[in-house]
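Re: PMV structure - here you go.
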Amino acid sequence: MKKTTAKAPSNIAFIKYWGKADPKLRLPLSSSISMNLSNIYTITTVEFSKDLKEDKVEMDGGMIRQEEMTRVTKHLDRVRILAGIKLKARVKTKNNFPKGTGVASSASGFAALSLAASRAAGIKLSKRKLSVLARLGSGSACRSIPDGLVEWQKGIDSNSSYSYSLYPPKYWSLVDIVVMVDTKEKKVSSTEGHELAKESPFFTARVNGLRQKLKAIKKTMKNKNFEKFGEILEEETLNMHAVMMTSIPPLLYWQGKTIEIMQAIRNWRQEGLKSYFTIDAGPTVHIICLKKDVSSVKRKLAQISGIKMLIVNQMAKGAHFLNKHLF
Ligand code: PMV
């Protein structure tokens, strides 16, 4: 069996996935759109071997937590079934961002694992099948398989719920400046959060409006209408967080700094600096701007105290193989 290594980016959703139609299969209640990030990624090496009695998983130089181990082993089982093998695997995985910093790792992690493990098991999956496989490990991971700007079509069953590229990375000079305001791991994981989505009285209204919103944002991408695109981004973020805040029990992911930065971005726009925010299930603010405005945004951010880390990302390609292995 061939040792295989893959690299996969994390992604930021512009139209968010929040709420599942089928939690076991990780089928979403709505389609979503995202961009792959160039500077937040995972590299994973996998080798199946007859010398192993059990799966061995090492992450960032240490062993992983039991619940993470179970999730990885389950994913390896999916690959073993597809490949028709029983061998156990050695997995070594490395994130380029410090663990527990609140930067999502499950998307890049399961995308890299899906590509590396399937090839190491001797099977060559199409991008579509890889995306389906990654989705079973972590929903948003299916968007880290294709390149650039990506749509995850919700589908009607497991085989029809996958992601594809809308535009390649070079299409548009979008940048995501990730502004970390807290380095603690979030208390409520997105897996738990998805379960609560339907508890919000606003959830149905949100889902009903999404079709139109998907259409509208795609039009702004086609026309490269950045201002309209940004307006939809912010409206969508606030819409998803309104659902989070009104689920039972409510989820409040923002911190004081999160709101301070959201307000600052809106003020910068009044002054002519076109940047927009989007926020996932945590306090981290993603500032979306065009490449030409990155240094202006960074200058503005330098005036805000208490920011823990900045990561500047361009649009990236999806999961791909690397020749250099981690072991
Ligand atoms: O794939 P999960 O379970 O980590 O869920 C991702 C949820 C959000 O980040 C809030 C939205 C999204 O579409 O990425």
